[in-house]
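Exercise: predict the structure of this protein bound to magnesium ion.
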Amino acid sequence: MHQLPDTDPGETQEWLDSLDAVVDASGKNRARYLLSRLLERAQQSQVSFPATVSTPYVNTIPRESEPWFPGDEHIERRIRAYIRWNAAAMVSRANHIAEGIGGHLSTFASSASLYEIGFNHFFRGKDDGNAGDHVYFQGHAAPGVYARAFLEGRLTEDDLDHFRREIGRDGHGLSSYPHPRLMSDFWEFPTVSMGLGPLTALYQARFNRYLHNREIDDTSASRVWAFIGDGETDEPETLGAISLAAREHLDNLVFVVNCNLQRLDGPVRGNGKIIQELEAVFRGAGWNVIKVIWGSKWDDLLAQDMDGVLLNQMNSTVDGEFQRYSVEDGSYIREHFFGPDSRLRQMVSHLTDDELISLPRGGHDYRKLYAAYRTAVENLGSGRPTVILCKTIKGWTLGPDIEGRNATHQIKKMNLEQLRAMRTRLHLEEEIPDAALEAEDPPYFRPATDSVEYQYMMERRRALGGSLPRRIVRIRRPISLPLDNAFEEFDAGSNEQSVSTTMGFTRLLRNLARDENIGQRIVPIVPDEARTFGMDSLFRELKIYASQGQKYEPVDHALLLSYAESTKGQILEEGITEAGAMSSFIAAGTAYATRGVPMVPFYIFYSMFGFQRVGDLIWQAADARTRGFLLGATAGRTTLQGEGLQHQDGHSLLLASTVPACQAYDPAFAYEVSAIIKSGLERMYGDAPEDIFYYIALYNENQPMPARPTGVTTAQITSGLYQWAPSPTAHVHASLVFSGSANLAAREAASVLLNTYGISVDLWSATSYKALRQDAMSVERFNRLHPTEERQVSLVAQLLGESDSPVIAVSDFMRIVPEQIANHVSRPFVSLGTDGVGRSDTRDTLRRYFEIDSAHIVVATLNALVGTNGVTTDIVAQAIATSGIDPDAAHGLVLD
Ligand SMILES: Cc1ncc(C[n+]2csc(CCOP(=O)(O)OP(=O)(O)O)c2C)c(N)n1
Ligand SMILES: [Mg+2]
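Solution:
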């Protein structure tokens, strides 16, 4: 403001003098009060002013603005008490049945009201045939969700008694945390890896808008609710994308943060205030922030706070102190919180010590919560996402040994005395008689179906569209497979034209997007890397999704391939966020279940920034039963020349092989890419869809793409290994097995071996070592456990046979990738690969360095043949010398 001319200095001075006078006469609190009122008035008068990021440590919604509470508070309290009891009993029993099996008591205990307000009044179910709300439960609160499902009759006592013991019982145990793969008709969204729940929820809300704007599905009736721990906000994934939610106007998104001020080890911000910190972060990002800090009983005290001393005490007390108050008695609170200022002490002089303890926090007050949720849902249309910050006590109602204690997160069991105290606290003496309590395990309690509680609970869920959570695959908008002509051109090869498998893929993607059957359902996803992969050619045709359209004329508007954004755009250009792009992949790849609308995501990224960067999200995708294609482009440690250590990927295929649902492929040729994707679409979107996804390595090295050899079937290509070229002579001295870009060196080596050494080899393309190994392991297991039955033979053993002739496998990945099959091949097996750290240099130099060029393949083959077919060690030495290999040169296995 000092940079602007003051048009009326006298008036300015008057205002400043007034402020000084207020500070002098009435103190700083009064001055703050007046300034806040002025700001509020300015806002009402539409005097635009940069938003402040913090407000005082009180509820955002004042008592007079609270809506009427439509529920029956007494019945809801009873229901909550039953659920609380059963959740605690289930965890306790589980640890009695199987000591050390774990589980969490205190997370749900702190958040029971946060969920129950949602269940009784807000969360929409799917009974009307629509998708309902998408609710992301905090992973460690799962016991409470099971306890409610038990009350609703969806789970039995036997189910509860199999909490955390899933094996056997036809898989009917209860998974420790929300898990759609383990409980596929119950949980929709896996959440327990901290940070991934909120991140994927945010992108789910964004994807709902994408579906809506593209007119593929009407998502306007679905809201996304994400329940998050305050400790969980430490994760960069939790907060890292919140500005996107505001930018995209995701007013269909609600975060509820359970601020119990504790994480696993102790306080979240002992020396600060997590609620204030989060308020500033979310407000700064443009969210609608609702703080639910104090329960109703505090309202009277605040109303009497003439001098602002109570507010001041609330503002200046740190969380570590608040946590202390949660475990101390009333006299301590009187002494330390209200004590220091006589006006404060006076304010609570009419309250007994017990009454001081029971001044509850806002997150345990259903009226306050109802007001907050109501405001959040009425926020639709404002363009702003909402975060509700609820102050709670960790372990609430579990008694003094557990509530608010630093160790509370890890307590798994309750003894008789603790259970009895809890029963009293929850007023369950009638429901849980002494005799039942004294049994070895605490009993469960389920109200009779004709009880008012049961009737009320079920009526509420009926009114809101049925029970939650519930995962159901009910295809509302079916999809059909693409026509064959999308794939056919690749079988002819590219003749003389040099192209990469990435270019082949991009062309195929365009064909699929144009396909009359599946075209609309294709979701291309890129994290600011489309030009790298030659995909900018798709910008103009498919358009980039932009909820606001394109409000500017792009610099390249005159070009054929201009940067074109549109509300109906198909491409999700995520910007530089692999985590965000993966979250979109998950939202799109689970749309068949969450929305009943199968979508086909193709997420293409720098392969180095896939499994290595966002491996946990890839597991999340698998857990969520995501379908779709991950494309690891610029793959390989030598194919991507010049980039060096941080970019050159020689291990993503190894990491891919660790994820069971992931089908990992390393194709060499465009027709292989096409065959793999065709078969993948059939497996994931055909008549008997499988909940799997694909990882396909793509390279940027151009080469003339060969035609598909005659007779090679799609089934052979996708099985993992097929003979690409037979031996040119009747005798096969060795087999060269290549993958991906290593095909060039292997093919050259084959001709050198024949022409210079008279060694004849056949050439094989290994498209998936993972698939081969998977098959071989199943066969090995069958043979081991069925000793009397006819022995099975694995595919790889059938194909490569049994002989003394060696197999030399080469790829642009670590040697361990081909070695996945070494054990299952009854021939001498040599693997060449790119172990070591990436280096910047030319392809030729890198391949010599990592010892995977044609000369090294020749040497490795000759070496494996020593003593046979006239090959001697002298011949190998000569081959080394003539090809200029320096045996003492630096190589990948030495780290320097
Ligand atoms: C990525 C990740 N790191 C660590 C953990 C282990 N962990 C489980 S719960 C927890 C503390 C959670 O605290 P908070 O988010 O505040 O939840 P609360 O139980 O207090 O509601 C931790 C560290 C995890 N589940 N995921
Ligand atoms: Mg916490």
